[in-house]
Amino acid sequence: MSFVYFEGKIVHEDEAKISIKTNSFHYGTAVFEGIRAYYNKENDTMYGLFFKEHYQRLFTNMKILNMSIDETIDELVEITKDLIKKNNYKEDVYIRPIVYFADLKISPKLIGYTARIAIYTLPLGDYIDTSKGIKAKISSWTRLNDNMIPPRLKVTGAYVNSAFAKTEALLAGADEAIVLNKNGYVSEGSAENIFIVRDGTLITPPVSDDILEGITRKAIIQIAKDNNIPVVERNIARTELYVADEVFFCGTGAQISPVVIIDDRVIGDGSPGKITKFIQNIYFDAVRGKIEKYKNWVVEIK
Ligand code: PMP
């Protein structure tokens, strides 16, 4: 039984229940985050990764949905650290904060309701493979855009689009979907941003191509720049994926996941690429607090 944060307190998970009448449960209007904490066994320490950045994004998302809660970003960082400590983890952990309209009222709207935050945690190793390389499939589902459900929102309703894409990919024998936007350009995976490598340059779709403004994406751009790997944010066409030297997904859950097959075409030589592995090695050390330069990414949980 784990400890969770619910209605202003840390409680046992069996005490954290919501009514079937809860407004956001019906209309997909809850905003959430996916955060990780990593265990470093060399010094027996848990490191929270980008805690502040995730809660900042949550607050930006809340602003768009006209939500406010009692807790501040700094308080939520402390509550999350307390939860990890109380649950006594000595392994990698995923953290799921969710802000929802708690009113037991009918009607999809964003005014006149009270928002609350709940947070739970679970042990989580790889969400998708990070070593051998995975198979992806271009989705027949189109990515949402800013005038439908804004892709910059991590809002529960938007994940219907992700669920369609992921399910289609799985049923076709692939591991993950790549979703194109309304203009036919590559946007992202079902729950990951995407990078390709061509002639030593990292290329990733711009925010205007209907992607989530990923925190891992930003960290990767920083690693690349610090190591003189050129990075370009520009449109990527579907067939450019097929001819890329390397492709990888990134995200808090996905971490850095090399893609070696797309629509039955082999990418590069069919194994995780050199630049992908280079960035991955730095990332996996940084998230466990092992790189001085990136110590500001993590918070020690003591
Ligand atoms: N895109 C989508 C749709 C996602 O759900 C996620 C996971 N949060 C990402 C990209 C990656 O974002 P981040 O690196 O901030 O986890």
Automatic annotation (TrEMBL):
<dbReference type="GO" id="GO:0004084">
    <property type="term" value="F:branched-chain-amino-acid transaminase activity"/>
</dbReference>
<dbReference type="InterPro" id="IPR043132">
    <property type="entry name" value="BCAT-like_C"/>
</dbReference>
<dbReference type="InterPro" id="IPR043131">
    <property type="entry name" value="BCAT-like_N"/>
</dbReference>
<keyword id="KW-0100">Branched-chain amino acid biosynthesis</keyword>
<dbReference type="GO" id="GO:0009082">
    <property type="term" value="P:branched-chain amino acid biosynthetic process"/>
</dbReference>
<dbReference type="InterPro" id="IPR001544">
    <property type="entry name" value="Aminotrans_IV"/>
</dbReference>
<dbReference type="InterPro" id="IPR036038">
    <property type="entry name" value="Aminotransferase-like"/>
</dbReference>
<comment type="function">
    <text>Acts on leucine, isoleucine and valine.</text>
</comment>
<dbReference type="InterPro" id="IPR018300">
    <property type="entry name" value="Aminotrans_IV_CS"/>
</dbReference>
<keyword id="KW-0028">Amino-acid biosynthesis</keyword>
<dbReference type="GO" id="GO:0008652">
    <property type="term" value="P:amino acid biosynthetic process"/>
</dbReference>
<dbReference type="InterPro" id="IPR033939">
    <property type="entry name" value="BCAT_family"/>
</dbReference>
<comment type="pathway">
    <text>Amino-acid biosynthesis; L-leucine biosynthesis; L-leucine from 3-methyl-2-oxobutanoate: step 4/4.</text>
</comment>
<dbReference type="Pfam" id="PF01063">
    <property type="entry name" value="Aminotran_4"/>
</dbReference>
<keyword id="KW-0663">Pyridoxal phosphate</keyword>
<keyword id="KW-0032">Aminotransferase</keyword>
<comment type="pathway">
    <text>Amino-acid biosynthesis; L-isoleucine biosynthesis; L-isoleucine from 2-oxobutanoate: step 4/4.</text>
</comment>
<keyword id="KW-0808">Transferase</keyword>
<dbReference type="InterPro" id="IPR050571">
    <property type="entry name" value="Class-IV_PLP-Dep_Aminotrnsfr"/>
</dbReference>
<protein>
    <recommendedName>
        <fullName>Branched-chain-amino-acid aminotransferase</fullName>
        <ecNumber>2.6.1.42</ecNumber>
    </recommendedName>
</protein>
<dbReference type="InterPro" id="IPR005785">
    <property type="entry name" value="B_amino_transI"/>
</dbReference>
<comment type="similarity">
    <text>Belongs to the class-IV pyridoxal-phosphate-dependent aminotransferase family.</text>
</comment>
